[in-house]
Structures are given as structure tokens and as C-alpha cells.
Amino acid sequence: MDSKEYYQKNKERIKKYSLDWAKRNPERKREQRRLYKKRHPEKIKEGHRKYFERIRRKVFIHYGGNPPKCACCGESGLRFLTIDHKNNNGNTERLRIFGHKHVAGNMFYLWIIKNNFPKDLQVLCFNCNFGKARNKGICPHKDLNRSLSII
Prior knowledge:
Elements: H1 3-9, H2 11-24, H3 26-39, H4 41-64, E1 81-85, H5 90-98, H6 106-114, E2 121-125, H7 126-134, H8 144-149
Antiparallel strand pairs: 1-2
Helix pairs in contact: 4-6
């Protein structure tokens, strides 16, 4: 019997033994983890990247459908999308929640999931989000008169 077969037949027993060993030897387990991180930084980095990609996708699918798209113009390229506060109060919300207004990305996505997907958020593309910020809370797609007066 080769090692893969042995593992498959004894998977639960091996897992239990490993967990028990880790509980009995916390210092050695911590040292193993530290050495692994030191020897395999790219693997660790890739694991984090994949984890946060899943978190981000989960948030965008919740607010923007599957596949996610901009609530204003319909853009569906995930790299072009962002989360928008419908009430135009993103700065004050981030200040209230995190203590400063420069929190974005992974921390924000984790907060959204932890707080059961607050209703005052939506998916917009960066163009619509920026246009809305520059146009007193109204996307230029929705207010053509104001956006034409800029030209």
C-alpha cells in the first residue's frame, strides 16, 4: 500500500492524531508554522490572495448579482467594480466604524460579511462611483444635463 492509499484509509485517525499532537505541543507547532512561513512566503502570499479574492467575490455577488455588475451602467468587469454607499456617506460611515476614513478593500469586505451585508451598499463601477462623488451624489449617467454643462 502506498502513502496516498494509507492516508485515504486512515484520514480521520491521522487528523485526530495531528490535532492532539498540536494541543500537546503548542510551542513546537508555533515554531513549525513560523518556519513554514519563512520557507514558503510565496505560498502564504498566494493563499492570502486567493482567500481575499473569494471574500471580495462573495460581497460583489451579494450586491451586484452573479456575475456582478454596476447598478448604474451595467459594467461587469470585476476589476472595474467597487462598493458604493447609496447614501453618499462613505467617509462618515468608515470614520464611525473604523475610527478613520481610509479603510477600504479587504478590511471593508470582511466587515460587510461580519455585519450581514448592510442594505445601504451597492456595486458601482469606478466611473459611476467617481462621477457620483463629483456630481453631488448623482451619477452623470442619470443626470445628463449636469454632466453636459461641465464640457
